Each structure stands twice: as C-alpha cells, then as structure tokens.
Amino acid sequence: MDRHPYFIQSYCIIRNHTIAINGHPYLAVEHTAPLHDFLRAAYRQLGIDYPKFYKMDGLCKAIFIAVELMARASGPFENDTALVFSNYSSSHLSDSKHAQDISDEANPVASPATFVYTLPNIAMGEISIRHQLHSENVFFIFDSYLPEFLVPYGHAMLDDRKASSIISGWTEVTAKRCDVFLYHVGQAGHIPCTVEHMKRLYQGQERK
Fold first, then answer.
1. Exposed e or buried b for every residue in 23-59, given b needs 16+ CB within 10 A?
2. Which site among 11, 112, 134, 205 is 20 to 30 Å from 197 CA-CA?
3. pLDDT tens digits for 94-106?
4. Higher pLDDT, 104 or 6
5. Helix, strand counts (H, E) of the chain
6. Looking at the whole model, is its pTM more than 0.85?
C-alpha cells in the first residue's frame, strides 16, 4: 500500500526523439536522426561546458541530460541524494562496441574508453561527479519498468533516512531505442510518489 508522504519534485522523459521535463516539451528532432545526433543536440541546447559528455556512451548521455534538466527544475540536489536506476539491456551499446573492437581480426583493441561503459552503473558515477553526490546507488535489471518494486524500494530508503531524496526510474537505451523516465523524489511536491502515479507519468498521462 502506498502510504508514504513523498512527492515527485521533477521528472524527465526521453523517448521517440523527444525530451519533456515535468510534462512540458524541451526538444524534439526528426525521428530519422541517429541517437547520438539527437543526444548531442540536447546537450548543446543545455548550454553547458562539460567536455566529458562527448566521451560517454548513449546510455550515459541520456541519463546525464535527464538529470541535468531535473537539477534545473528541482535542484541543486543534496549530496546524499540516492540513485536507483533500472533497465532491460544493461550496457548493450557499449558491450557490442567492446566485443566488436576486440574481435577485429586486423587490429584487435581493448579500448579502456569503451570498456568502462560496459558497466551500466558508470552513468551513476558520472552523475555523482557532475552533481557532487556522495550517496547510495543501485542499478537493477528488469524486463520492463517496474514501479511496483522501485517505489517501495525508494520509500524504504527515505524512511530509513539513508537519503534525503532519490533520483529513480527507467533508463533503457539501445541502438534503435531510447526510453528514459527519471524522477526526483523528496518531501515536497504536488504529485504523490505512488505506484499508480508513476505508471501514469511514465505513460505520459499526467503533468506536474
């Protein structure tokens, strides 16, 4: 039963070559644009200088952009803001690139720049560095977005005072698909952080 007094402070959806923050459009590009072009366009629109962005893989770039937008909407984040992410494909984009590099018959290379992103939780490290977070974090692998697990898990962390707020959600990024839904949960806000509300936000049926 959802009975905890926690609320959505901000949320971001990146899907179908569009980005929305708190239900309001931020960026949309042609559906034929490659994923890396789409994410770079979003980064340029943010108007920040963070050269490490260009070294990140697609999963990390999408998470970076979503969290950056939420920081502007409901941040800056407290340094004990926990990270609770999930997806289905783990770090498949970087896994494929790494496997391709080391299988090249002519010039097999194990690039550290690629290998590091075969760990999906490296995105959490990048976010922590960017926003100066010194917090608990965990990355789950599910078949689909599972608020029935994530919502009570996050509430338990807040109840136990392991974090003052939480950034949580779904971060599925592949070569052909980007489906990111991240939200910032804390004591303030208007949308209760319940399983039902999370389902509606993910499906685009509710606006902050």
1. eeebbeeeeeeebeebbbebbeebeeeeeebeebbbb
2. 134
3. 556 645 655 656 6
4. 6
5. 7, 8
6. yes
